[in-house]
Amino acid sequence: MPRGNASQSKVHYQGKEEDFVIYIDDIESVQKWKGDRSIPLAQVVSGFKIFVTHKHGAQNAHDGASKSTLENEFGTSNEDDCMIKILENGDLQETETHERQGPKNDSMGSRQAH
Known about the structure:
By secondary structure, the chain is α+β, with helices and mostly antiparallel strands. It contains three helices and five strands. A hairpin with a 4-residue loop joins strand 1 and strand 2. It starts with 6 loop residues before the first strand and ends in an 18-residue tail after the last strand.
């Protein structure tokens, strides 16, 4: 995952019962992969983990997808096959992360000398 003000790319797939998200290295690598399937998935995705959003969209909290959820949506619990379907049919999204904004430690008060 990127830190600081780096960009974060993901693919959002809206399924029948759940929304699925996978994180990718960048949008360009997915487009290259779509044109040349000999490129390994490891060079496209950032970690082999599929997330579900419980129908709350791509910007909210994510939980790991269970095998039964994958089986119900994609007809298989093989994560590689599910990732391929998500990459083929999902929406590519890129956002800027602003991880280091706002107060850093509110409990320290004004930090004035007493």
